[in-house]
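hey
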């Protein structure tokens, strides 16, 4: 069989994957905190018909003769550029202006991360996400006391803080609630102004290495690196902007353009298969 036919098949598979990623981007154009994906390709191994040779004085060198055998996926990247902040006027809507992520308890002893800042208080006064996960605050301490997630230093041996769910007791009696840029929650209770917990923020060496697990959440991987926890406005993690939500960073005009390119690329590869099939048909007909 012709090599071009199998090259066309590989191209069709890759462009189908590209269309799948584009479709997911467009579907999440209005998803808070969503980061778009991008597909890149690379060529497969090439078959060497003849190798290169150097010149010998009497004649010049000869370049190698190779035939490529198609393409394959190189990477499906997560593009973690900043999305625009949409003003909502709601105090518990917090947009992150910077590279950080909110840390939440996954309910199984682990931590998930999100850029979607539409937060709520439940009936027990805990700060939670839209799907009910506890939003974690950072408490500076050097002991592992109570329920929470310990935060270690750079050597990963000494505990320097604890991540705990944020709770405001008697939330029904609280007024004048506000959230500062550094994540500090302020409110008034029984006529007294109280400065509460700080919302924790996590920063990674490689945001693109985070793994999407659905519901606007990510988990850390070996590629993302160990998260560094801190308060917003510290360590370059960004600041919280209360009353706003970060929109998706999907650009529809760009996605539609990429969709057209992927569609034409898919069509071109089907044409390669059709042409190869016609050539094979001609070869079969030689016997007649």
């Amino acid at each position: 069989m012709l090599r071009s036919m199998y090259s066309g098949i590989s191209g069709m598979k890759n462009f189908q994957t590209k269309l799948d990623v584009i479709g997911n981007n467009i579907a999440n154009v209005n998803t808070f905190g969503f980061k778009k994906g991008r597909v890149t390709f690379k060529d497969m191994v090439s078959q060497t018909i003849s190798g290169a040779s150097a010149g010998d004085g009497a004649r010049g060198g000869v370049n190698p003769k190779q035939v490529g055998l198609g393409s394959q996926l190189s990477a499906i990247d997560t593009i973690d550029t900043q999305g625009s902040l949409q003003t909502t006027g709601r105090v518990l809507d917090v947009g992150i202006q910077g590279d950080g992520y909110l840390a939440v308890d996954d309910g199984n002893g682990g931590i998930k991360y999100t850029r979607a800042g539409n937060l709520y208080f439940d009936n027990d006064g805990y700060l939670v996400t839209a799907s009910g996960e506890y939003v974690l605050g950072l408490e500076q301490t050097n002991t592992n006391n109570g329920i929470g997630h310990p935060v270690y230093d750079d050597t990963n041996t000494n505990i320097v803080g604890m991540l705990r769910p944020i709770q405001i007791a008697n939330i029904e009696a609280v007024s004048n609630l506000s959230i500062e840029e550094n994540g500090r929650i302020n409110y008034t209770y029984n006529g007294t102004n109280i400065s509460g917990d700080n919302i924790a923020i996590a920063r990674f060496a490689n945001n693109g290495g985070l793994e999407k697990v659905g519901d606007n959440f990510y988990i850390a991987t070996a590629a993302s690196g160990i998260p560094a926890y801190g308060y917003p406005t510290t360590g370059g993690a960004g600041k919280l902007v209360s009353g706003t939500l970060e929109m998706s960073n999907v650009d529809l005009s760009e996605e539609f353009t990429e969709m057209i390119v992927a569609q034409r690329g898919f069509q071109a590869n089907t044409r390669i298969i059709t042409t190869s099939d016609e050539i094979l048909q001609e070869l079969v007909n030689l016997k007649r």
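The longest strand covers residues 71-78. Residues 85-246 form one domain.
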